[in-house]
């Protein structure tokens, strides 16, 4: 990536809007949370500024170093934040940027034509929420330095002197543990994922991370940019074309970049970005992309004779089955909805993206007829499956009030009709289902026993799914529908608890159910409604006292505590002999939930006061998608490698992806 010169970048381009006072009082307003996510959002605020330098053509690399003492350093080789005196504040421009809210080069004035910053509060907010922040800038061979404590400068900007370091900005900061009370420890994996994505989205930029705590390091550079990103998302899937469709065109003052590649799966994977910011709720760029894609493929199908005259047009859902795409728009004045930037609102962008897709994707299909026929053929199969599924779906979806008239016969429903206090246990087998039904709190706990292993939906379309009795029973019980008629507001239980045996078969059933929920009811997972019950593995009996252990480590700990108590009372324990007999205990291992009677199941796994539940979260949807593809897809080699490399690490908590 060739660097531009930045000789005209000075303090006059930095505009000041208002002060910094509210940040420490209400940090959540500026970074969303003061937990794990908030701590890592601080990294993003600083690193995004470095990426903006790269987008503008002034930087070629971004380096992140996680320090042993709890800090983090982010360095770029861009122009360096200006150090001259700011005409409005009278302070150095660097100090102004770091201490005044809404001071930055993103409010006009020529600092940036395109940036990921919406509110321009990033650097000053990070400074306000750090116990210490050190900023170093190199300009014209000179090094400048300033240090802050909780947002206040310790001394004016200091000119250190000549240096061989390249031009750029280095920010080191330490999150304030009085604000981030949950954690101030940086997650190396989070940083790696963030920098990987930024390298994909900014082709030609080099990103690098090193963790001084462990000496782990990774670097990323993708000359292909979002083309490489699409290929990465399709790893483990059978693709319909060797090379992705790719276009990059400027429309007025905006840059439109799109990469598309189809695979043989039944799910759509589209990532829309605006100025390198992921917009998970989409927006005008996604609407324009979908509209253009649907129009172009229908027009090609008509003129090539693949879609007959009397046949109705392919729907957008049909066309997007198996689609993997990245949409990246870069525009001078992005209008995001809210501080979280989840959705792009610029109305003109829809027209820009649709225009580019109409012209260039049409060229692509004409020039690649074999690929085009595969895409249209897949969409036609999806359309037939959709029509076949519609009749079946209409028969199973519950309509009207929650009166239970069309609920599955095997469901033992709860008496409460308040979803917020209701929960459903999805149980493996009739035996465990019987115990659960007898031991439950019938007012708030419903039981749905499933027979055998449910269908692996990773390898099945909706029409085949709706022919599976267990899947149908689950859809009817949850009440949210599926496919076109999915509606999260119909959810009958705010806790969906998967309760299976603590063995290989139980784990497999849990994974099959999670695959279904992730692929077809992702809003239920995203809403925090899905849990895994963790039944005990051992019963430790000592006279009339019974204790349960959920793993071997807990079992051994309980045994050692009993032995320690006996030793304190003067009982000698011969560790060479049977310790359990000397301790006066018997240890039983449960083979499955069906072995527990109703009282045991209630006491250990269903009683809210005692039970252990693992909430299923999707912290990284992209990683979760890749894991489900590996574990449940058709490529045996990927699954085998995953199992071989992770077998010793796997625990129930690892499903908290």
Layout of helices and strands:
Blueprint: E1 15-16, H1 22-25, H2 28-31, H3 36-55, E2 61-66, E3 72-76, H4 93-99, E4 103-104, H5 122-128, E5 130-139, E6 142-149, E7 152-153, E8 158-162, E9 168-175, H6 188-201, E10 206-211, E11 216-220, H7 226-233, E12 245-251, E13 254-262, E14 269-274, E15 277-278, H8 284-303, H9 316-319, E16 323-330, H10 347-367, H11 369-396, E17 423-428, H12 429-439, E18 445-450, H13 462-465, H14 469-478, E19 495-499, H15 504-520, H16 522-526, E20 530-533, E21 538-542, E22 545-549, H17 552-568, H18 579-583, E23 586-589, H19 598-606, E24 613-615, H20 621-632, H21 636-646
Parallel strand pairs: 2-10, 14-16, 17-18, 17-19, 19-20
Antiparallel strand pairs: 1-4, 2-3, 3-9, 5-6, 5-9, 6-7, 6-8, 10-11, 12-13, 13-16, 14-15, 20-24, 21-22, 21-23
Helix pairs in contact: 3-5, 3-6, 8-10, 8-11, 12-19
List keywords for this structure.
single chain, 657 residues, alpha+beta, Heat Shock Protein 90, Rossmann fold, 4 domains, nine-stranded mixed sheet, five-stranded mixed sheet, 21 helices, 24 strands, flat, disordered C terminus
């Amino acid at each position: 990536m060739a660097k531009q010169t930045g000789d005209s970048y000075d303090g006059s381009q930095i505009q000041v809007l208002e002060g910094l006072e509210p940040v420490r009082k209400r940090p959540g307003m500026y970074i969303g949370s003061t937990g794990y996510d908030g701590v890592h959002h601080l990294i993003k605020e600083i690193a995004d500024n470095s990426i903006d330098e790269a987008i503008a053509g002034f930087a070629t690399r971004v380096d992140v170093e996680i320090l042993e003492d709890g800090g983090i350093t982010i360095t770029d080789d861009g122009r360096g934040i200006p150090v001259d005196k700011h005409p409005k504040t009278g302070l150095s421009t660097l100090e102004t940027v770091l201490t005044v809210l809404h001071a930055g080069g993103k409010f006009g004035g020529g600092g940036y034509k395109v940036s990921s910053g919406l509110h321009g509060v990033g650097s000053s907010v990070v400074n306000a929420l750090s116990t210490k922040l050190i900023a170093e800038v190199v300009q014209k061979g000179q090094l400048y330095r300033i240090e802050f404590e909780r947002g206040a400068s310790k001394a004016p900007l200091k000119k250190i002197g000549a240096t061989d370091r390249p031009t750029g900005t280095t920010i080191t900061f330490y999150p304030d543990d009085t604000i981030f009370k949950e954690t101030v420890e940086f997650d190396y994996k989070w940083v790696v994922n963030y920098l990987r994505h930024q390298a994909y989205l900014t082709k030609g930029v080099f990103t690098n991370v090193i963790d001084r705590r462990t000496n782990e390091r990774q670097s990323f550079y993708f000359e292909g940019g979002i083309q490489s990103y699409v290929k990465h998302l399709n790893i483990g899937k059978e693709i319909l074309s060797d090379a992705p469709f790719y276009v990059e065109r400027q429309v007025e003052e905006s840059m439109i970049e799109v990469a598309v590649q189809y695979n043989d799966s039944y799910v759509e994977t589209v990532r829309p970005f605006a100025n390198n910011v992921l917009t998970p709720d989409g927006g005008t760029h996604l609407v324009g992309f979908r509209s253009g894609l649907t129009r172009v493929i229908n027009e090609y199908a008509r003129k090539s004779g693949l879609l007959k005259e009397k046949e109705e047009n392919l729907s957008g859902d049909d066309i997007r089955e198996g689609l993997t795409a990245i949409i990246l728009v870069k525009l001078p004045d992005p209008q995001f909805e809210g501080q979280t930037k989840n959705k792009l609102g610029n109305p003109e962008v829809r027209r820009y993206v649709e225009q580019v897709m109409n012209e260039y994707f049409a060229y692509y299909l004409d020039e690649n007829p074999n690929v085009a026929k595969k895409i249209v053929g897949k969409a036609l199969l999806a359309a037939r499956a959709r029509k076949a599924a519609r009749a079946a779906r209409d028969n199973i979806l519950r309509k009207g009030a929650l009166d239970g008239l069309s609920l599955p016969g095997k469901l033992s429903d709860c008496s409460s009709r308040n979803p917020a206090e209701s929960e459903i246990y999805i149980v493996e087998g009739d035996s465990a289902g019987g115990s659960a039904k007898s031991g439950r709190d019938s007012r708030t706990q419903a039981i749905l026993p499933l027979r055998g292993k449910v269908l692996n939906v990773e390898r099945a379309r909706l029409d085949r799914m709706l022919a599976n009795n267990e899947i149908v029973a689950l859809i009817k019980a949850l009440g949210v529908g599926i496919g076109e008629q999915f509606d999260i507001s119909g959810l009958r239980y705010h806790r969906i608890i998967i309760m299976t045996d603590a063995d290989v078969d139980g784990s497999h059933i849990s994974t099959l159910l999670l695959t279904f929920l992730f692929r077809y009811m992702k809003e239920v997972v995203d809403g925090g409604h899905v849990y895994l019950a963790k039944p005990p593995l051992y019963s430790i009996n000592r006279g009339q006292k019974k204790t349960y252990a959920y793993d071997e480590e807990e079992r051994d700990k309980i045994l050692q505590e009993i032995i320690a108590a006996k030793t304190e009372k003067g009982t000698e324990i011969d560790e060479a002999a049977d310790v359990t007999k000397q301790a006066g205990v018997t240890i039983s291992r449960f083979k499955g939930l069906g072995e527990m009677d109703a009282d045991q199941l209630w006491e250990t796994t269903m009683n809210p006061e005692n039970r252990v539940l693992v909430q299923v979260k999707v912290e990284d949807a992209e990683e979760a998608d890749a894991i489900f593809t590996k574990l449940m897809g058709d490529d045996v080699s990927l699954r085998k490698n995953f199992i071989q490399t992770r077998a010793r690490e796997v625990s129930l908590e690892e499903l908290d992806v």
